[in-house]
Amino acid sequence: MLRRGITVSGLFVAFSTYIIYKGTLGMYCLNGTSGYDNPNTNDAIQPLYRMTKDDWWFHHSNKCDRFPPEEGDFLDLPVNGTFTVEHALNRAFTTLSYNGEDIGDFGDGEDHPGMGEDGDCITAINIHTQNESMAAGTAFAVSYQSNMSLVTFENLVVFTVLYHTPWKRIATYSVPNLPACPPEGCICAWGWIPNGCGTANMYHLGYRCKVVGQTGDAAVAPGQAPVWCEDDPDRCVNGAKQMLYWHQLDGNNIEAEGLDLAGDHKSPAYNAKCGFRNGAQTDIFLEPGTATPTDVPPSTIRHKLPSLVRTSPRPRRITPVTVLLEHAHRYIMMVYSFPLFVYYYARS
Questions:
Q1: pTM
Q2: Which of 33, 83, 72 is nearest to 205 (CA)?
Q3: Which of 84, 83, 91, 77 shows the shortest CA–CA distance to 14?
C-alpha cells in the first residue's frame, strides 16, 4: 500500500509529539506552517542543531511559534493524573489525520515486530536509538505565562519525564499536583535530546496547556539549569529544573564533554544522568499556600477523534495509482495464464 506520510532524509530522527487528551488539541503549528491544514505536515519535527536561540526557541526557525492552536484548544493536564500523546514522524501517522487510517504501533505507521533486538542503531524508523531501553527519555515543561513572549528558561519548568521514549507511538505522562494556570492557559513545551545514533540535535515544541481538576496550593519554583551528574549523583540539581538546551550556537544551559560510564559520548537527557527522575516531578514546588487551589473543569471536547489504537485492518485506499497498478497486475496475470489456457484446451 502506498503511504501518505513524509519522512525526513539524512537524519536518524524526526520525531514529534501530537497531543490527544479527551479530544482536545494544543500543539503549535499542528497544521503546519503553510497557512492551511496540511494533514501530511512534519514542520514541527525538524531537528534543532547549531542554531541561535532566536531560531531554536519554540521552533522559531520555521515560524512554528507563529501558528498557535485554534482558540479553545488546550493540552489538558489532569492534576495527579495522566495524559496520553502520540509520538510520530508525521501527522499522517497519528489519529489527527485521515481518521487514523495510517496509525501503527510505531510513529511511522508500522508495527515493526522484533525491532531493536540486534542492538544496532535502528534505521527502519528515524528514532535515534538501538532499542527501547536505550531511548534517551522525553519531558514536558510548563510556564505559568499565557503569552509565549514572556516564557523564560527559569519559568519553563519540567513537570513530567518519561524514560525510554520516544519509542512506540502512544506514550502516557504523569502530572504532579500542579496549581491552576491563568484564565488564558499556560504555555507548555515538549523536549527531547537523542542519545547517539545520529546528529546530536534537540527538539523543543510549544503547546497551549491548562491544568484541570482540583489544583494544587503550591506555586512552581523557578527552574535551575540541570547538570551532568551520572558519575556523581551528589552534583545533581534537586528541585525545579529547566529544560535541556544543548549543541546550539547560543543559549545552551548544559555542558557535557567526554565519555559517559558506558564509554559512549556524553549526551544530556531527561533521565538520571542529568538528575531527572521518571514520572511526575514532585519536588518542583514552593511552600504550600503560594497558590490558590481551585477546581478547573476539563476542556470542552471540540474535535471528534478516532481510537488511539487501530481496531480493524487498515482500509484499502483507492487512488489513480492503485487503479493503474491493479490493471497492470491483471494484464500480467492474463499474459502468463494464456499459454496454460491454450494448452489445457489443446488437450481437451
A1: 0.85
A2: 33
A3: 91
